[in-house]
Structures are given as structure tokens and as C-alpha cells.
Design goal:
The chain is α+β, with helices and mostly antiparallel strands. The chain has one domain. It contains four helices and three strands. A three-stranded antiparallel β-sheet has the order 1-2-3. The longest helix is centred in the middle third of the chain and has 8 residues.
Length: 80
Amino acid sequence: MLLYNHLMDEKGNVPYKHTCPVCGKKITGKVHFESLEKYMRGEMHIQHALPNMPAPERELFITGICNICWQHMFSENKAV
């Protein structure tokens, strides 16, 4: 995951760019830099550090896997 902290906006958000390791999808967005740092340093659980970010987006910072791949991998409706 690439964070561009030199591009921080007035709210403390920085752009990020990531490639899902499963499907190769390119994902971009913005994240509050200090909040993400607290998670990465182990000071907070991610849901507390980034409470306004939807869970599928937070998953990118935990596993690196995009929402579509996560849903596919852990769907209860998989054919066996």
C-alpha cells in the first residue's frame, strides 16, 4: 500500500493506492493519516481508528484484499 503523506489535505487525509493481491484490481482512495498511523502502531483497533470508513475499505488496510475478492472468498453460498 502506498500512502502519499506529502499530498496531505487540510483535513489530514492522504491519498492511497493499492493493488489487490488476489485479482490485481487497482484501488485508490483517501485516509486520515494520523488515524491510520494509530492503527498501524497498534494503538487502536482499525474500527476505532477509522470509524467513518466502511468495513470493506478498512479490510484493505488489514489484509490488502478488495471487497469483491473478500466476499467471494468468504461467502457462505459457495458451491462445494
